[in-house]
Known about the structure:
The structure holds 2 protein chains of 2 kinds.
Chain A: H1 15-24, H2 29-47, E1 50-53, H3 55-70, E2 82-86, H4 114-121, E3 125-130, E4 150-151, E5 154-158, H5 164-171, E6 177-182, H6 188-194, E7 197-200, E8 220-225, H7 228-238, E9 269-272, H8 282-294, E10 300-301, H9 306-332, H10 338-348, H11 352-372, E11 378-382, E12 395-398, E13 401-404, H12 405-408, H13 414-417, E14 423-428, E15 436-442, H14 447-459
Parallel strand pairs in A: 2-3, 2-6, 9-10, 9-11
Antiparallel strand pairs in A: 1-3, 4-5, 6-8, 7-8, 7-14, 11-15, 12-13, 14-15
Helix pairs in contact in A: 2-3, 5-6, 7-14, 9-10, 9-11
Chain B: H1 12-23, H2 32-50
InterPro entries (chain B): AtzG-like
Protein name (chain B): DUF4089 domain-containing protein
Amino acid sequence: MRQPVSEQDWSIAPAASIATAVAEGSVRARTVVAATLDRIGRVDPAVNAFTQVLAERALARADRLDTARDRGERLGCLAGVPFAAKNLFDIAGLPTRAGSRINRERAPAERDATLIARLEDAGAILVGALNMGEYAYDFTGENIHDGNTRNPHDLGRMSGGSSGGSGGAVAAGLVPLALASDTNGSIRVPSAFCGCFGLKPTYGRLSRAGSFPFVGSLDHLGPMGRSVEDLALAYEAMQGPDPADPVVTGRAPDPVRAGLDAGVADLRIAVAGGYFARGADADALGAVAALAGALSCTCTIEIPQAARARASAYLITAAEGAALHLDRLRTRASEFDPAVRDRLIAGAMLPAPFVERAQRFRRWYRAAVLDLFREVDIILAPCTPCRAPLSGETTLVLDGVAVPMRANIGLFTQPISFIGLPVVAAPVWLDDGLPLGVQIIAAPWREDLALRVARHLERAGFVRAPVANLA
Amino acid sequence: MTNPPEDPAFDPDTYAEAVAGLLALPIDPAWMPSIAANLRVLHAAADLVGAFPLPDEAEVAPVFSA
């Protein structure tokens, strides 16, 4: 519900409300951007979501937008909406640091990444670059070079990674939309820990051109936000072919907003059992059960060989990530985060047949999971095995066994992104404590269905992404 | 990944030392415990994937197209 203009705090308004108000002329884009920059200045020192704030660029763009409206030009569907991008997205004039120290010496990017350009073509306004785990090899939101992004809902806890700045900025109400990447869970994990919505589209749906890669076989880009409508707005604006990304689809763009409120009565929905019902604490499973109950879902389905899918994603990630960074590991190893460096070095040493086998298994697994989608339209699974851990924790207790934290936060996300399925991460608040996330998983190219389910749950009050109470 | 059981047939320190030469990767001895731990995890993952029978016709899913 929109507040009267005089009472509206534009710095924390939804993207859809801002775009409508700017297009109507009830608020100037400059007013929205100035309020956003002011809030970032006041709140971000506690959260550490931003690595660069682009005040001059953002205000100049807002002025151009206001001038265009004054001339009677039609504005785009994201007119005046501030957004920020994980700092692995190219931003013209800045070196693309990808969470690293080494990349700060790169030449400044000559142009914006495709997805930034597409959001700005729709009227959105980039206000800054966001913190992330080094080279995206991270689930914690911790960064030894730029400092950790803190969880806005509890500053002593992890934001989740590697898109920790994206989750932190959205949950702290610094921007209504953020761009992020997800190779093994890096949109879905911070969405869960920070209580945001996140969309990891089908592999190949959105262009990755102009983003610093991690694992080409598994890299996805997508939006994070505080409402399903805002995700849908951004997702629609970013679709389309792009010859600069070799895996992006030639399919026609998928308009999702028109069907967003179609409900769920025609959908066959199941909860992932087996692997996805073990290795999580009671709260993580309780969040899934809460949404299953809300959807009157009593069906459980087993995703076959999920543990092997995860192991395969782990091997491919280690090997491809290491190959990408091999020259830097040879010459500048001491400048990496040691935790990232040692995983990459081990990955560089993997025998090729192990990696080839994992890629072949991927083919088998994809076929097996696609068979499941003959029986169901949507599968629900936890995003993470627990709520956001305390910052600095290095072990996680799963089924009574202490396991390494960094490697295990992605237990439930890796088998899904391994074959590129589209997922909406939906935030669930079981009590007064921290949020949990549930993956709403659809068949390839059916982002529309995952968004519909998330929207239905949001309207019914079962999932929500409130601004953290910070200042 | 969970902490894998020790495999007496695999010595990650000796392996890492040998392969580092092939890769021309200089490795500080202080990094070895962590690298070895990561190699054990990767070894366990490879064992898990390798134990699954795949037909010879199961090719990798292609992503490159010219």
